[in-house]
Design brief:
By secondary structure, this protein is an alpha+beta fold. The protein has helices at about 85-105, 115-125, 155-170, 180-190, 260-275, 290-295, 310; strands at about 5, 25, 50, 65-70, 80, 140-145, 170-180, 195, 205-210, 215-225, 230-240, 245-250, 280-285, 305, 320-325, 335-340, 340-345, 355-360, 380-385.
């Protein structure tokens, strides 16, 4: 079984076009040894768009296969394929093997070649990242599309993910493209977090709340009524250092051709952010798949909502969160650099105001397998609650 690569677009130059082909990678084999798929591994003429659903639709968009291809260099080419029973079973088996082998090594006294997953997670924590080492009014947030659909190099990518999560110990973690086998491992290892998930099958989002720092109050899932990819908005109301906050995450519709649906979803996100209680700070983070021109087409951000990256002066080192010029996890026929992942803030209309103080990208280190933890970089933000409003 295989998962196809997920190419994407380059918005910067729409005048160029190129022919492209889809390829699939079998786990454990080199990318050069890819086999062509009978129906979709074809060379397409430039600027031709095709869509092929599975021959037998399940009635559930997240269980159907969507293959949309365009060879215009300005157009993203994504293949969204949900796992069949066989593929999900294979991925689960691989992840369980990683977990079991790691746990078995803990009981091996004579020879242990690698630390357990729990040791990887807990061993990375330091005083600087513990709850005791953080300022009471300083909140850290990590949002990351962890690419759970990719089943390659899990023996390195899973420990790497846990290492990052253990190192930073963010107060709030927003994850996208989480899958059930990943979720099971994270829940067993990260017992210091409360887990909220946007779904329980296919791929979905999740909000992780650090129990020693964040008090969970309630959660809600808002379905996007016209999504063709099973996307939704996951929300959590919490109390942090005496402040009322609402955290939101989503994985907005993929593909450039889904621009209108994505903008509709973004409008709904903004609506929920605006309508939160006046006393609440609202922070959204996720994989938006947005192009800057789409935000402009909507008239820009609403007056009360701000882009944290822009608030921090648009730091160049945090500009591109999906960057195939550096990240080689997905093969694309041309270099792509886009700011798919974003963090939005709506401050309270009364009470302490959260000022973003720092933003950095996570997951930049190449692994021994010559790939990265995910095809996306994660975004780590720090907020400081102050009395004055910007």
């Amino acid at each position: 079984f295989t998962y196809p690569a997920l190419p994407a677009e380059d918005d910067r130059d729409s005048s160029k076009s190129t022919e492209c082909a889809h390829a699939q990678v079998k786990p454990g084999k080199k990318k050069k040894q890819k086999k062509k798929r009978q129906n979709t591994e074809k060379m397409f003429p430039e600027k031709i768009l095709t869509e092929q659903p599975t021959s037998q639709s399940s009635g559930n968009p997240k269980q159907d296969t969507y293959i949309q291809t365009t060879c215009d260099q300005s157009t993203q080419t994504d293949v969204l394929q949900n796992k069949s029973t066989q593929t999900m079973a294979t991925q689960t088996f691989q992840l369980q093997c990683i977990h079991t082998q790691s746990m078995d090594s803990k009981s091996t006294q004579t020879h242990r070649t690698r630390p357990t997953l729990r040791e990887v997670y807990e061993g990375q924590g330091s005083a600087d990242h513990s709850s005791e080492g953080k300022e009471p009014n300083q909140l850290t947030l990590l949002t990351w599309n962890i690419d759970g659909l990719d089943v390659e190099d899990l023996k390195e990518r899973i420990p790497s993910l846990l290492s990052y999560l253990g190192t930073h110990r963010a107060d709030v973690v927003l994850l996208q493209e989480l899958v059930p086998p990943y979720l099971k491992i994270l829940q067993e290892i990260m017992t210091d977090y409360e887990f909220l998930q946007g779904d329980d099958s296919g791929y979905f989002t999740a909000i992780l709340l650090r129990k020693s720092r964040v008090e969970f109050l309630q959660s809600n899932i808002v379905k996007f009524p016209t999504t063709e990819m099973g996307r939704n908005l996951l929300m959590a109301n919490v109390c942090f250092s005496g402040q009322q906050l609402c955290f939101m995450t989503s994985h907005l519709e993929s593909l450039k051709t889904s621009s209108q649906e994505r903008m509709n979803q973004l409008r709904r996100v903004w609506k929920w952010m605006r309508e939160a209680p006046d006393s609440h700070t609202v922070i959204f983070g996720g994989d938006t798949n947005l192009r800057d021109w789409e935000v402009k087409k909507l008239g820009g951000l609403p007056d009360c909502i701000m882009d944290v990256w822009e608030m921090l002066g648009q730091p160049e080192d945090c500009m591109y969160t999906w960057d195939t010029t550096t990240n080689n996890n997905k093969e694309v026929p041309f270099p792509v650099r886009l700011r798919f992942d974003r963090v939005y803030l709506r401050g309270p209309r009364e009470g302490l105001w959260p000022h973003p103080t720092r933003m950095t990208l996570v997951g930049l280190e190449k692994l021994r397998c010559s790939r990265f933890t995910s095809d996306h970089w994660g975004i780590l933000c720090t907020f400081s609650f102050e009395s004055s409003v910007q």
